[in-house]
Structures are given as C-alpha cells and as structure tokens.
Sequence to fold (184 residues):
Amino acid sequence: MRKHRRAIISIVAFTLALLLVFAWWLLPKILSPVEKEPYLETFDATGEWTAGEGAASTGQVVDGVYEMSSDISGESFWATAGRNFGDAVYQVEATPLEGAEDNGYGLLFRVDAAAESFYVFKVSSDGYVFAGLCTDSCLDQQALVDRDWFGSPAVVQGLGVTNVLRVEALGPDIIFYVNDVEVG
Fold:
C-alpha cells in the first residue's frame, strides 16, 4: 500500500511540476504586448511607420518602398514599424541608391523604446557587415559578431544593388544572414 501511495504522490508531483513549467512558458506569451501574428509590410501606405522630415533626414513611402535619406554623413537615422516584436525571423530587402559606399544600412529589431536600446544588423556598399546591440539611442554599440564591422563576400557591393538581410532571433540565440549566407 505504501508503494502505491508513493507512486500516486510521485505522479501528482510530476504532473504539478509539468503544469508549472507549462504555465511558466505560456504566461509571458499571454501577458506580453509582443505581436503574435506574422507581419509583412508591403508599403502600400505609410501605416504606423515613422515618416516625415527631420533636421537632417527624411522618411517616406514612395511606390511601395520606404525611402530614407540623410543629409549628414556618419549619423544614424532609423524608422520603426510602430509595433513590438519579440522572437521572430526579421527580413528586409535594402538598396542604397546614392552617397558614399562606406555607408551602413539594414534593420533594427527587438527595439525597447523605454530603454532606448535595440539590436542592429547592417551592411555597407563596400562589403562590410555589422551586427550589434545599441544602447542609449545607439551612442553605445556592442558588436555581437567579430569586434566591429567585418568584411563578407556575401554582401553584394555597390550602389543601386539590393542586399537581403535576415535575422533569426529565438531567445538568446540570434543568427544573421546576408543574401541567404550565414555571417554570424
């Protein structure tokens, strides 16, 4: 009888532990304001994306494309979708049209507006890649791959050419791709 009672207690304890683990996994997903549905932006309209003209940059939707331009070299400018995304596959097709080839263009993800932090993944027209974490509105950058910008043959070089940047972010695991080639 004692063995039977221990077996029942073990099964109940195991079931409770399993339920707690499931609740621990599910509860943040229910309570989080993070988007849960796939998101695709075709830029038929501006939508919630930042648009307008600032002191040194302009962002606007033109013919199904989000165009951003800057009058200042060496400064960072960005636009966001106006939504909060967590674990996801992020992808952008980006084409630099004019300017210096030692530029930087790409995507931001896991933006935390309150903390003024986000992850950044960008390439340059002269064949370099940067993947990092920006804090303090990107005044502080920490490289996540290599020590800083690094050269990669995966980047299509030049102006007027398109590079596809993709990030697969799941928890602490982040994989960076340029034109379907893993770069970090």
In short: The chain has a mean pLDDT of 77. Residues 2-31 form the longest helix (30 residues). The chain is about 15% helix and 35% strand.
